[in-house]
Amino acid sequence: MQEKSIAGSPLYQQVRAVLRQQIESGQYPVSTTLPTEHDLSRSFQCSRATIRNAIRGLVSEGYVKPRSGIGTIVIRSRSEKRSDTMRGLTEELKDRGFPTEAVVLQSKVVAASPSVRTQLELFEGERVLHLIRLRTMAGRPFALLNAFVPATVGISADEDFSGPLYDLIERSHGMRISYGRDVIGSRGAREDEAKLLQIEVDTPVLVIRRTAFLEYDKPIEYVEATIRGDLYEYTVTLPR
């Protein structure tokens, strides 16, 4: 049977619109999987080819991501917002509709390692707040964050770190973050990371190393984020 379009739009676009609405309304939360093509074709009373085209559109819009052996995973519950403003990972995920929570694994002031001193432009012997947090999404661990802030900023190791660290730096300590620099790569998950992220050792993970700066190019925070590639995509808007 030849499928007909309604109101002038192809059927696959209508199916895509309905699925998009269901995702945005929370019927299919972030980190869950969509029903199979077979189940969706029965639900919408259309061919599996129509379902595939609809899902392909959702993939291009950044709502879902196919994963071999598992299905089509929802990775965003809101349309992408274009912005030229630097945001922290927690802030970005909130804007994209990710329900996240932070589990603080470590919070203490330590001597800065040589590599951290380089990133934060510190002198030998200077100390930093070393904060390790595990970010969860819909109850599933998806990002391990190792953050370093100069001890001179005055953030105590026993402060509330459940929210964005940028908010704590800016609102509570009166410093304005001006810009950031990201270095993005990928590698296999190490044993300690794999255990915390609940994935197999050597599973590919996204690694983002960011240095945040105050005005006058003064580094204020350095973070190494190890993120599950099956639950997150890094989106950049590039004006020309």
| Broad structural category | alpha+beta
CATH class of the largest domain: Alpha Beta
Number of helices: 7
| Shape verdict | elongated
Strand content: 25-35%
Strand order, largest beta sheet: 3-4-5-8-7-6
What's the CATH superfamily of the largest domain, by name? Chorismate lyase-like
Please name the CATH topology of the largest domain. Answer: Chorismate lyase
* CATH hierarchy: architecture of the largest domain: 3-Layer(aba) Sandwich
Poorly predicted sequence stretches spanning 5 or more consecutive residues = 1-7
Helix-residue proportion: 25-40%
Taking the sheet with the most strands, its summary is:
6 strands, antiparallel
Mean pLDDT: 85
Radius of gyration: 21 Å
Distance between the termini: 46 Å
- Reading the helices and strands in chain order gives HHHEEHEHEEHEHEE
Can you tell me the number of structural domains?
A: 2
Number of strands: 8
Provide structural commentary.
With 240 residues, this protein is an alpha+beta fold. The protein folds into two domains: 11-74, Winged helix-like DNA-binding domain superfamily/Winged helix DNA-binding domain (Arc Repressor Mutant, subunit A); 89-228, Chorismate lyase-like (Chorismate lyase). 27% of the residues lie in helices and 32% in strands. The chain contains seven helices and eight strands, in the order αααββαβαββαβαββ. It has helices at residues 11-25, 37-44, 48-60, 89-95, 114-120, 165-172, 191-197; strands at 64-67, 71-74, 100-111, 127-137, 140-150, 177-188, 204-214, 218-228. The strands form two sheets. Strands 3-4-5-8-7-6 form a six-stranded antiparallel β-sheet. Strands 1-2 form a two-stranded antiparallel ribbon. α2 (37-44) crosses α3 (48-60). The model is unreliable at 1-7 (pLDDT under 50).
